[in-house]
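BACKBONE STRUCTURE TOKENS:
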Amino acid sequence: MKTINRQLAGIVSATLLSACTGIPVALGTRTGGPTPAGTERTITARACGFQLLLFIPININDRAQRAYQALEAEAGGDFITNVQVQERWSYGFVGTQYCTGLQAKAVKPKSS
């Protein structure tokens, strides 16, 4: 009986800890050389999640990835550089909202 309780405790612990993992995000366009010169514009994106009752994560762990995907969509294929990350949170009645905001420069390369 002790073995089953230990195994169950291990499974529950592993499940709870896996809810705390985030997804790494590589920011900016990867190039083999310097960022191309061209017209720059500022782009922004934001993604939020909610921590229900300070215990149940809802769209929390992938918010940086979702924000970066929205930033790429706004860039429309242009090079992304100078990415700035801003985290914000606010309390709600039944939990906390967490938001990741990204601001960057989109560079449209000059045509050759």
